[in-house]
């Protein structure tokens, strides 16, 4: 599959190059001039809307490139050479590595976009020339403008959202990836100090597993992240279904009351509830206070200072937070399972467990499979529960990078960025968060019943 795609892409590239060459070789003067002055061909043929749009694109590109982008692109390879310094008691500002990297990337992307528009310009000239050779008439300018509100209205609507996604999502992601290959940290902060490209040095540091370095810490944090996501997802999922089954069972009174009590858990903001719970279980909190007062313990239980106990507490508290969501979803789905299936199973002599295993659970897994994947992915990056309960603690001398025993990759990334200003390693960890999330999500997705056996279930 990959080889076929590579062959197709290389063939498409060669075809494009061949078409450009053929267009210039066989094209008329108007077409050839459009290779240099974009849109001149359509303008000379009376296609003013298209022609002036291409011409404006070229003017804007050269205005941006020579007036702004070139100064940053020329220093992109080094990210700057002149540091800010003092001369005769005056501050002389030098290069700014941050701006060079940011605007250099933006310039590269704009160059790629310009090449794409230039290619469209060449093809437009080729198509117009072919139409005229066949004796066909070109579209009127009014029709071209009207198409923006008719057959091309989707492109008109999507232009601003696509630009917004690029500026606020794609470009920051590319910037973050590039930072991972630099030495951007507390000692190399622009504009006072420059940072530079270091290649794969940061990745080598992260994957050096000897001693108590970043590699060993990364391994521990990664294992805990996966363990946390697994238990946090499955406990909330299955216990939520169980609670929904219990409340929906015939003979249970005050169903609305029990649902309301559970929903109160998610009605209160986590910022309030989780911080409150974290204080309950401190050494001087209410729980330890009452246990000491009742003489059930002689010293405070280290709920948050013992690494193993802290992890267990986090999972248990997450059950309290996560069950109501799954209970509400499961309640709606359980009401839609055909009652005939249960009646047939009872006639065949099936007990409650057998009906749950053969009817309820397969139906729930099929319908809520995508939700289960979403929960798992969300738990891999669950910042709130971890940080509000333990702030990633307890701290350990065996862990580098200010990481704690209960830190997830995402909370460790936060600490490196905000507390340590170690942007280079934070960027590397950010990339690893994406890799871990993507790989595990794909594995879970392919294991879902709704993906594996959709036709069989139906």
Written description of the protein model:
This protein has 458 residues and is mainly alpha-helical. The chain folds into 2 domains: 2-199, no CATH class; 208-457, MetI-like (MetI-like fold, Orthogonal Bundle). Helix content is 71%, strand content 1%. It contains 20 helices and 2 strands. The protein has a two-stranded antiparallel ribbon. Helix 4 (48-73) runs antiparallel to helix 5 (97-133), helix 9 (214-248) runs antiparallel to helix 15 (352-380) and helix 13 crosses helix 15 (352-380). The radius of gyration is 31 Å and the shape is flat.
State the fourth-level CATH superfamily of the largest domain: MetI-like
What is the CATH topology descriptor of the largest domain? MetI-like fold
Strand order of the largest sheet: 1-2
Number of helical stretches of at least 4 residues: 20
Helix content: over 70%
- From the N-terminal CA to the C-terminal CA, the straight-line distance is 30 Å
CATH architecture classification of the largest domain: Orthogonal Bundle
Biggest sheet record: 2 strands, antiparallel
CATH class identity of the largest domain: Mainly Alpha
Oligomer: single chain
The total strand number stands at 2
**Poorly predicted sequence stretches spanning 5 or more consecutive residues:** none
């Amino acid at each position: 599959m990959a080889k076929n795609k590579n062959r197709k892409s290389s063939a498409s590239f060669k075809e494009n190059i061949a078409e450009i060459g053929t267009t210039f070789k066989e094209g008329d003067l108007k077409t050839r001039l459009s290779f240099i002055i974009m849109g001149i061909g359509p303008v000379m043929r009376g296609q003013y809307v298209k022609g002036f749009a291409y011409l404006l694109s070229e003017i804007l590109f050269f205005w941006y490139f020579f007036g702004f982008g070139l100064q940053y692109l020329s220093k992109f390879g080094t990210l700057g050479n002149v540091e800010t310094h003092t001369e005769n008691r005056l501050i002389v500002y030098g290069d700014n590595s941050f701006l060079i990297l940011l605007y250099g990337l933006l310039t590269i992307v704009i160059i790629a976009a310009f090449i794409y528009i230039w290619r469209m310009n060449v093809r437009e000239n080729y198509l117009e020339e072919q139409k005229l050779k066949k004796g066909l008439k070109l579209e009127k300018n009014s029709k071209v403008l009207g198409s923006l509100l008719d057959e091309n209205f989707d492109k008109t609507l999507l232009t601003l959202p696509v630009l917004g996604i690029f500026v606020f999502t794609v470009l920051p992601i590319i910037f973050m990836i590039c930072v991972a290959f630099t030495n951007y940290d507390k000692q190399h902060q622009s504009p006072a100090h420059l940072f530079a490209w270091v290649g794969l040095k940061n990745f080598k540091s992260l994957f050096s597993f000897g001693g108590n370095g970043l590699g060993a810490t990364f391994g521990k944090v990664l294992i805990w992240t996966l363990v946390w996501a697994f238990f946090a997802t499955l406990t909330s999922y299955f216990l939520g279904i169980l609670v929904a089954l219990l409340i929906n069972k015939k003979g249970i009174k005050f169903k609305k009351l029990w649902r309301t009590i559970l929903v109160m858990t998610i009605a209160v903001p986590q910022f309030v509830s989780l911080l409150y719970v974290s204080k309950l279980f401190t050494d001087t909190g209410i729980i330890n206070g009452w246990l000491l007062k009742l003489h059930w313990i002689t010293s405070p239980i280290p709920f948050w200072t013992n690494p193993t106990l802290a992890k267990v507490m986090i999972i248990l508290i997450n059950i309290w937070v996560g069950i109501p969501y799954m209970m509400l979803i499961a309640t709606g789905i359980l009401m839609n399972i055909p009652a005939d299936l249960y009646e047939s199973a009872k006639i065949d002599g099936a007990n409650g467990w057998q009906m749950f295993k053969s009817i309820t659970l397969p139906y729930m897994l099929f319908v809520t499979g995508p939700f289960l994947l979403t929960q798992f992915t969300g738990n891999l990056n669950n910042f709130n529960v971890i940080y509000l309960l333990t702030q990633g603690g307890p701290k350990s001398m065996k862990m580098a990078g200010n990481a704690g025993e209960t830190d997830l990759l995402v909370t460790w990334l936060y600490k490196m960025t905000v507390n340590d200003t170690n942007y280079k390693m934070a960027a590397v960890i950010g990339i690893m968060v994406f890799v871990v999330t993507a790989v595990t999500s794909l594995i879970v997705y392919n294991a879902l019943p709704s993906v594996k056996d959709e036709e069989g279930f139906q």
